[in-house]
Amino acid sequence: MHKETCIQETKCLKLKSSVDLAKNKGTKQVSDQPTHELEGVEGEEDLSPEERRVLERKMKKILKKEEKKKLKDEGKTLQKAEASGPTASQQALDYLTCWAESRTEWKFQKTRQTWLLQHMFDSETVPDEKFSILLEYLEGLRGGAKDTTVQKALALVQESGQAPEDKVVQQRAHRAREVIQLLS
Asked: Which residue, 9, 79, 102, 112, is most buried by CB atoms nearer than 10 A?
């Protein structure tokens, strides 16, 4: 029992010294050639494959952190890749257009419907030309989604009575009245 704990402590010390050694060397490309990174470490042949992977991950993390700190000190920042795919609004509007133009290719998508129902009163996210298509789409709405949509529309109409001078609120209320008339 005592011998096992000594072995584990020795391995931990080797891992720590390996990480410190890599840190001091400023080793690059940990993920590309992990076995070469550990060749200079004393006793690395005693490491199990799992311990070797742990060590490689730690070294990679430390090096990445140091590189980020170095860039920050130089006043530069890492540029993250922008989302190249279409936005949720564009996907939902495309879904609605597909429903209107080719129902044979159209397939129900809960997330797209939910997005449309949450944003249908906003004329910036759902333009007027798409809103008329959305009203046709809403004719087929059933169940809880229909009830929730009517309740939300009623709440918007009541809210508009409290702010008669706010143009955006009145525009949302106008859309809400159309939805209520359609679904009631």
From this structure: 112
* pTM score: 0.54
Residues 2, 7: Cα–Cα separation, whole Å: 9
> Residue 78: exposed, middle, or buried by beta-carbon count in 10 A (0-12, 13-18, 19+)?
exposed
What is the per-residue pLDDT for 106? 94
Distance CA 21, CA 135 (A): 66
d(CA 175, CA 153): 8
Which distant-in-sequence residues (6+ apart) come within 8 Å of 158 by Cβ? none
Reported residue count of the chain is: 184
Take residue 129 and report the two structure tokens written for it: 């030309």
Structure tokens at 29: 């490309």
Question: Beta-carbon neighbour count of residue 154 at 10 Å?
Answer: 15
pLDDT tens, residue by residue, 97-140 = 999 999 999 999 999 999 999 999 999 999 999 999 999 999 99
d(CA 134, CA 179): 10
Distance of CA 101 to the CA centre of its chain: 30
What is 23-58 written as a DSSP string? HHHT---TTT-HHHHTTTSTTGGGS-HHHHHHHHHH
Regions of the chain with pLDDT less than 70: 1-45, 76-84
